[in-house]
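Below is a typical protein record.
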Amino acid sequence: MSFLTDRPHEGTLIDASLWSADLGALTAEVERIGPHADSFHIDASDTSFTRDAIFFPDLVRALRPRTTVSFHVHLMAHRPAELAAAFADAGADLITVHAEADGALEAIDRIRTGGQAAGLALTLDLAPERVKDLLESVNAVTMVGTPLGTKGTSMVPEALDRMRVIRQILDRRGTDIPLLADGGIREHTVPDLVAAGASGVVAGSLLFGSADPAATAAWIRSQHTTAHADGGAR
């Protein structure tokens, strides 16, 4: 997948959250932000794991011809395997399931068997140490730093410690996969998250609401070098 292997950009990964786009003009938004993103983050739900339905497979299918940027579907579902298959068929490149979901490992296996990259997400309620056995099966990890399914909320302080823990686990295993921070991505949180070990951020309003998306994207990417030069963990 392009943002996992042959990235056009250096520095911190930008997973641009379509939930923060102008939902009435998604095609235009995809074309506007595409040059500045490594992937588009597409939230999806079974309306049970989280209440709101948000995005759905046919919408992903409609957007797929509009951009060559990878689609990362963040699947918030209790039994994700079948829904993951629908999003894979619609054009998703990376499909992330929650470690708390029933049949998470089955879904991961089916995603990878189908040719897509598989990701693992952790909510605030799950200790990072509990997912060690799943990490070898995935291509990316997403650490959620706000209550799941909320929009525009602030990152909780413990998100940084959780990021450090999962980064240490990945480093000890020698696993070089993207570690994404999702939720509460603001100018004052990006440097701290990168210093704590994040290799990418799920940028929503910070990017889509910017008067100069190119400059904002360049700043986000620059935090990779700045944070680690200051001794941030990796």
